Every structure is written in structure tokens, then in C-alpha cells.
């Protein structure tokens, strides 16, 4: 039985993970479930899965949940805050950790799982954007098994040569016959919208993704295409691939989840319904394939598949992410922090949709710290970049 910790259990990825887990009670046992503030949802999940531990964002919430679970006769122990997350991510009895917290808040716990040598199912792409080198070094040092959950990276993982896929230290992709990685992108809800009207879109419109149902932060990132920018950085670290070998292709139907092109001209792709339970199931029991509850793709129904290059004028966030990756050092971490501040401000209607890119760009211009060398200095860059983004928000009078 695999003992599984689900970090961010109440979110979109967390719920899909538990859906797959529940289909295979003979294979998986839930060791710990965590949430930030969603006490009621976490309680219901605890009542269904009987984890050994649960974690909530602060002591008061944790005490409340502890009391409620006792009343239901459950022996689950409830922990609080970051220390609780780190404890359940690195506990010796755990073998698999789903890292599905949103944003930089997920970094310490996903890093702890990597350091402890777990099978890490990484949904939290921000971990690699903030601390790609440190995280990959930790994976290598501990011998952790890193499996990507992001659908594009999971697709790439599936279509890479097996020796390259499973190597902890990789040679240049060209020496494995790989010409380039093609990351597909739906283009989000505003792919064809008149750019002159983008300043007036609402959080509700930005969160209404045409193909995927996701948390609010990643939905806004998909609408700005910052999500694809973060994914380019994620692919760079996950697959030891130089930025010039990573291309983005707009593919509105989200059926082809990404591709790898080889030197002989072959392109291998992974296809499927846009349902995160596919990559989750693939990673949960890798290398075995298990039932995920995903409806089969009906070729007769979806008609044409289209592909075309992205428009960097319409989607400045994608350009900013490519620039941050080329600049390297601390710049991807600054990009990520400024984006989190901007998305949060947009979701609470403090800035307009088009201000997100403006805010990220000016923060990148004004704050260019030295490359962080450890986790502490990475988190310090993140904190300062957030402060700078708040200053820029005032200066821009967004
Ligand atoms: P979500 O907003 O639906 O869920 C986030 C989860 O994290 C919740 O359980 C929440 O309680 C927890 N959380 C939020 N803030 C926290 C904090 N400060 N401390 C501890 N826990 C906190 O998000 P999601 O859509 O499930 O995305 C999770 C991660 O997976 C993100 O990094 C996202 O980019 C990535 N991802 C999601 C999808 C998708 O389809 N939803 C696809 C690919 C990658
Ligand atoms: Mg993705």
C-alpha cells in the first residue's frame, strides 16, 4: 500500500487526486491531508479517508478541526501551519507526496518532500519557478522520484526516451536525439478577444477557462498566458532543457497535451481528454497504468485540431517569462512573486486585467537582486519582490 500525503487536498488538484485514490483502495492509503482555511471541506475529506494527520493554516483552525474529528470518533491528529506541512511531507512512513498547494506557499513543503527522498508528484509549478536549481539538486541528492503533474509536463515525460526520463542527472537533450520540446497552450478564454477590450474583463470571465476546470490563480494565469510562461521555466528545470529548445504552440482544443520532437523528424505527442486525473493516475502508480475515471477521447466528436504560434503582443506575460528565464538568477523568482501579487489584486478587483503584465514588468525592471544560493535567500527574494510589487502597484496607480 502506498502511503500518500496530499498537500492542498481541498483544491482542484487535491480533489482530483482523492478521486483517483478512492478508486483504488487496495493500492493507496491516505496518510495526511492539508488545506489552508477550508475547514469544512477538509473535515469531510477526513471523514471519508481517515488520514493519520490533517493540517490547517493556523492553530485556531487546527484546534477546531481536532475537536470536530474527535466528536466523530476519528483518531486523526491535526497539525498547524508550515511546520505541520513540512512534517507530513517528510514523515518517514510516507512514500508519495502530492504537492498541490498553490503559489510560493507550496515551496517549503514540496522542498521537504524532495529532501526526504519521497516520490514527489509535483503540481506546484511555482516551486520550480522560484527555486528550480535548489529543488532539482535536492531531488538528486536524496534520490527522490520526481513525477510532473502539470498536464504538459506529464505529457512530455511520457513521450521522452525512457533512459532520459528516469535519469537523475541528464546529458544535453540533443545527445538523446531530442530536437525540441513543444509545449501546447489553449490560449485561455481571451485567445480571440479584441485586445483593446482586455482592460475591462472581470475575474469571473478570466476564471472561465474553455477546457479546464482549475483553481482561481492558475485560471487567471491561463488567461494572461503567464501560466505557459511559468510552464516554460518548469520544463527547463524538469527536463534539463535549454530555453532555446522549448517552443510554445497554441492548440485551442487541449487534446494534444504536449510533444517532443526528435532529430529524425518524428514528433511524439500524448493525447487525451482534458482531465487532470490522467496525469495524476499516471504519476500515482508509475510505471503502471491504472483506471482514472476519465472519459475516453471520442475522435468522431471533436473535429479539427488546430496549431499556431503564440502572439506575444497580445500575451506580454509569456514574453516576460521567457525574458526572466533567459536572465536567470533571481529573475524567475521575482517574476513569480510579482505575478502572485498582481493576480491576487486582480481577483479582489483592485487592479485591471491588463495591469497584471504592467505590474510584473515594472517589478522586474526595478528589482534585480543577486541570484539566491539557498532556500532562505530564495524566500527572502520572494518576500522583497512582493514588497516591491506593492510599491509598483501604487506608483502605477493601477
Ligand atoms: P486551488 O486554489 O484549487 O487549491 C489550492 C490548495 O492549496 C487548497 O487546498 C488550499 O487550501 C491550499 N492552499 C492555498 N494557499 C495555501 C497556503 N498559503 N498554505 C497552505 N495551503 C494553501 O489550486 P489548484 O488549481 O488545485 O492548483 C494547485 C497547484 O497545481 C498550483 O500550483 C497550480 O499551478 C498547479 N496546477 C493546477 C492544475 C489544475 O488543473 N488545477 C493544473 C496544473 C497545475
Ligand atoms: Mg499546465
Q: What is the H/E order?
A: EHEHEHEHEHEHEHHEHHHEEEHHHHHH
Overall number of domains? 3
Q: State the end-to-end distance.
A: 52 Å
Helix content: 40-55%
Q: What is the class of the largest domain in the CATH system?
A: Alpha Beta
Beta-strand percent range? 5-15%
Binding site for NADPH: 10-13, 37, 124, 126, 215
Enzyme class: oxidoreductase
EC number: 1.1.1.267
Organism: Leeia aquatica
Q: Would you write up a description of this structure?
A:
With 398 residues, this protein is an alpha/beta fold. It folds into 3 domains: 2-148, 3-Layer(aba) Sandwich (Rossmann fold); 159-302, no CATH class; 329-396, Orthogonal Bundle (Rna Polymerase Sigma Factor, Chain: A), CATH 1.10.1740. The chain has helices spanning 12-22, 39-49, 59-71, 81-90, 107-115, 126-142, 151-159, 162-166, 203-207, 216-224, 226-238, 277-284, 299-302, 316-327, 331-347, 355-366, 375-396, and strands at residues 2-7, 28-34, 53-56, 77-80, 96-99, 119-122, 145-148, 178-185, 246-250, 256-262, 267-271. The strands form 2 sheets. Strands 4-3-2-1-5-6-7 form a 7-stranded parallel sheet, sandwiched between helices. α2 packs across α3. It is globular and about 60 Å long. The chain starts with a strand and ends with a helix. Pfam families: DXP_redisom_C, DXP_reductoisom, DXPR_C.
SSE blueprint:
Elements: E1 2-7, H1 12-22, E2 28-34, H2 39-49, E3 53-56, H3 59-71, E4 77-80, H4 81-90, E5 96-99, H5 107-115, E6 119-122, H6 126-142, E7 145-148, H7 151-159, H8 162-166, E8 178-185, H9 203-207, H10 216-224, H11 226-238, E9 246-250, E10 256-262, E11 267-271, H12 277-284, H13 299-302, H14 316-327, H15 331-347, H16 355-366, H17 375-396
Parallel strand pairs: 1-2, 1-5, 2-3, 3-4, 5-6, 6-7, 8-9
Antiparallel strand pairs: 8-10, 10-11
Helix pairs in contact: 1-12, 2-3, 4-5, 5-6, 6-11, 6-15, 10-15, 11-14, 14-16, 15-16, 15-17, 16-17
Magnesium ion (MG) is lined by residues 150-152, 231.
EC number: 1.1.1.267
Organism: Leeia aquatica
Domain 1-deoxy-D-xylulose 5-phosphate reductoisomerase N-terminal: 4-132
Amino acid at each position: 500500500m502506498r502511503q500518500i500525503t496530499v498537500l492542498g487536498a481541498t483544491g482542484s488538484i487535491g480533489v482530483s487526486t482523492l478521486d483517483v485514490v478512492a478508486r483504488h483502495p487496495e493500492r493507496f492509503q491516505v496518510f495526511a491531508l492539508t488545506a489552508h482555511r477550508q475547514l469544512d471541506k477538509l473535515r469531510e475529506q477526513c471523514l471519508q479517508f481517515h488520514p493519520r494527520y490533517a493540517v490547517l493554516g493556523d492553530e485556531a483552525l487546527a484546534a477546531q478541526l481536532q475537536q470536530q474529528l474527535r466528536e466523530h470518533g476519528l483518531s486523526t491528529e491535526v497539525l498547524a501551519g508550515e511546520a505541520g506541512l513540512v512534517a507530513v511531507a517528510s514523515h518517514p512512513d510516507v512514500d508519495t507526496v502530492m504537492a498541490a498547494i498553490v503559489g510560493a506557499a507550496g515551496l517549503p513543503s514540496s522542498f521537504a518532500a524532495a529532501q526526504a527522498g519521497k516520490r514527489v508528484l509535483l503540481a506546484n509549478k511555482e516551486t520550480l519557478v522560484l527555486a528550480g536549481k535548489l529543488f532539482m539538486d535536492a531531488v538528486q541528492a536524496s534520490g527522490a522520484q520526481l513525477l510532473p503533474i502539470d498536464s504538459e509536463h506529464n505529457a512530455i515525460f511520457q513521450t521522452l526516451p525512457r533512459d532520459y526520463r528516469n535519469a537523475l542527472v541528464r546529458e544535453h537533450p540533443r545527445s538523446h536525439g531530442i530536437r525540441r520540446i513543444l509545449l501546447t497552450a489553449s490560449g485561455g478564454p481571451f485567445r480571440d478577444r479584441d485586445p483593446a477590450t482586455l482592460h475591462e474583463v472581470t475575474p469571473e470571465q478570466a476564471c472561465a477557462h474553455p477546457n479546464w476546470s482549475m483553481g482561481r490563480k492558475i485560471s487567471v494565469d491561463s488567461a494572461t498566458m503567464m501560466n505557459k510562461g511559468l510552464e516554460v521555466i518548469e520544463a527547463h528545470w524538469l527536463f534539463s532543457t535549454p530555453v532555446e529548445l522549448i517552443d510554445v504552440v497554441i492548440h485551442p482544443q487541449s487534446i494534444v497535451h504536449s510533444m517532443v520532437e526528435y532529430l529524425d523528424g518524428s514528433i511524439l505527442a500524448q493525447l487525451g481528454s482534458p482531465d487532470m486525473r490522467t496525469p495524476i493516475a499516471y504519476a500515482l502508480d508509475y510505471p503502471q497504468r491504472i483506471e482514472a475515471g476519465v472519459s475516453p477521447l471520442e475522435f468522431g466528436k471533436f473535429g479539427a485540431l488546430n496549431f499556431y504560434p503564440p502572439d506575444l503582443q497580445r500575451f506580454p506575460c509569456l514574453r516576460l517569462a521567457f525574458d526572466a528565464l533567459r536572465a536567470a538568477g533571481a529573475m524567475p523568482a521575482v517574476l513569480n512573486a510579482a505575478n502572485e501579487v498582481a493576480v491576487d489584486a486582480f481577483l479582489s478587483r483592485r487592479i485591471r486585467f491588463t495591469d497584471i503584465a504592467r505590474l510584473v514588468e515594472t517589478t522586474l525592471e526595478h528589482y534585480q537582486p543577486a541570484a539566491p544560493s539557498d532556500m532562505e535567500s530564495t524566500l527572502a527574494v520572494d518576500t522583497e519582490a512582493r514588497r516591491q510589487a506593492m510599491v509598483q502597484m501604487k506608483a502605477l496607480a493601477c
